[in-house]
# Entry
Amino acid sequence: MDAMARFVSDHNVEKFVNQLQLQHDPAIRRVLQSLLLEEVRKLGFSFEQLSMVDRQISEARERIRAQTDIIERLRVKGHDTSWAERLLGNLVGIQEIFEQQRQFIADSINQLQGL
# Structure
C-alpha cells in the first residue's frame, strides 16, 4: 500500500471510530463497524498494523476510564447519567472491535509466518 492510500485508510479508520463513539442507532453502528473492519483489512496484516491496533486499544481503554470517571462525578452530584452511560457503552463496543481486529491481525500474521 502506498503512502497516500495508507493516509486515506488511516483517516477513514479514525473517522469511523469517531462516528461510532456518538452513534446510537444499531443499524448505523453495524454499517460503521463493517466499514471500519474493511478499512483495517485494507491496511494489511503486519507488525506495524498490529502496533497501531495496540495503540488504539490503549487509547480506547483511556477513553473508557475517563468516561467512567465522568459518570461517577455526575452520579455524585445527582445528575442524570443516561447519556454518559450510552456513550460509555459505545466506547466499550469500539474497544471490543479493536480487540477483535487485533486477534484477526495476529492470527493472520501467524498464518503468514507458517507458510
